[in-house]
Write a structure and sequence with these properties.
The complex is a heterodimer of chains A (about 190) and B (about 160).
Chain A lengths: L18 E8 L6 E4 L8 E8 L12 E6 L7 E8 L4 E8 L4 E2 L9 E8 L8 E10 L4 E10 L8 E4 L13 E7 L2
Antiparallel strand pairs in A: 1-12, 2-11, 3-8, 3-12, 4-7, 4-11, 5-6, 5-10, 8-9, 9-10
Chain B lengths: L4 E8 L6 E4 L8 E9 L6 E6 L7 E8 L4 E9 L2 E4 L5 E8 L8 E8 L5 E8 L8 E5 L11 E7 L3
Antiparallel strand pairs in B: 1-12, 2-11, 3-8, 3-12, 4-7, 4-11, 5-6, 5-10, 8-9, 9-10
């Protein structure tokens, strides 16, 4: 097998040290904040893979726009550029915010949102941090998809990542939600 | 540490086919990644990905794409498979099947398609079924043997801690 992603051994088997699972959070219905802490600096990049749905509250299911905080930074040090589609038109926006740039479009009942976020050179203290995201939710008649590029305007190595729902989020991540953090070695 | 991102199976088509199936997919991973390259469906330029041989109207998608001159989004509901491009510019598909072995949730797929001459495409698919996925089929649009030789299909498993 020829290498596909550049991280596979030439004999076709993945090196056991190239792409490693760091930690996983499984939704229980009783927790609304996900935190990955004490992230080791031994990898080149990180990848966060998410399938998630917030629990329903009085207002129904939330829009599930999760806030994303790096190293507990709640300042306006994040910038996102987004290309997104809602099934009828494509649009783009950018904003500077205090962390609301993981767009997990709201699910409904058992229709979960999914997202893959790559955090490049997360431990490099000589550069600000760039993230890229592909995420979306389809509900057979509604839903949206996002291509996002994000900046965390800090040169600090990333040692923690936390996610929580936005203002419309009623509480907790449902069972069946999974947040998995992986490390990729260079 | 055991392998986290692991090839499950791969094939290169030696002749044109109507379909190819990865079967008996183990339920021991968290996500699956299906990568198709040199994928050309010569009759219709498109085809389907189906799970567990389900050819019912249980699939849907929301799409964003750019052609080089414009960007647009569309939606399709109640489809008979995950509709993907297989045009003559040798489409490349990278499809993430998320939480595929969970038996309580419908299945979401995040997909990136790249065509050298047509468009770049991002898609979120839904398969309205809570069954664990045990097979994945790549199929021509009309069932004819029109998926060309030379296509490469590789299935990977990603296992969370």
């Amino acid at each position: 097998m020829s290498p596909i992603l550049g991280i596979f051994a030439s004999q076709g088997r993945v090196s056991s040290t190239a792409y490693e699972s760091i930690a996983t959070f499984n939704g229980t219905g009783s927790t609304g904040t996900v935190t990955f802490s004490s992230i080791p600096s031994t990898y080149k990049h990180l990848q966060l893979r998410i399938t998630a749905l917030g629990t329903a509250g009085a207002g129904g299911y939330p829009t599930s726009l999760a806030y994303f905080r790096l190293n507990s930074d709640s300042g306006a040090n994040y910038r996102v550029h987004s290309l997104n589609g809602n099934g009828s038109s494509a649009s783009a926006f950018s904003n500077t915010s205090n962390g609301d740039f993981i767009y997990l479009p709201g699910g409904n009942s058992s229709f979960y949102a999914s997202g893959i976020i790559d955090i490049l050179d997360y431990a490099d203290t000589n550069k600000t941090k760039v993230l890229r995201q592909l995420s979306g939710s389809d509900r057979n008649g509604s839903g949206s998809i996002y291509f996002n590029s994000m900046l965390w305007n800090s040169t600090a190595a990333i040692t923690s990542i936390s996610l929580q729902g936005d203002a419309s989020f009623n509480g907790n991540w449902t069972t069946g939600s999974i947040f998995a953090l992986y490390g990729i070695k260079g | 540490m055991p392998a986290t991102y692991e090839p499950i199976a791969t094939t290169t088509l030696g002749s044109a086919v109507s379909s190819y199936t990865f079967s008996s997919i183990p339920g021991t991973y968290t996500d699956l990644v299906l990568i198709c390259s040199n994928l050309v469906e010569i009759t219709n330029g498109q085809g389907y990905i189906r799970f567990n041989s389900d050819s019912g109207s249980n699939y849907s998608r929301t799409v964003i794409y750019g052609t080089g001159s414009s960007a647009a989004s569309f939606r399709q509901t109640n489809q008979v498979g995950l509709n993907v491009g297989m045009d003559t510019s040798a489409q490349r598909i990278r499809m993430n099947v998320m939480n595929y072995s969970n038996t309580t949730t419908n299945k979401t797929v995040i997909d990136r398609e790249d065509s050298g001459t047509a468009a770049t495409v991002g898609t979120v698919f839904l398969w309205r079924n809570t069954a664990a996925i045990t097979s994945i089929s790549i199929q021509s649009f009309d069932g004819s043997a029109s998926i060309q030789a030379g296509a490469v299909f590789t299935l990977y498993g990603i296992k969370a801690a």
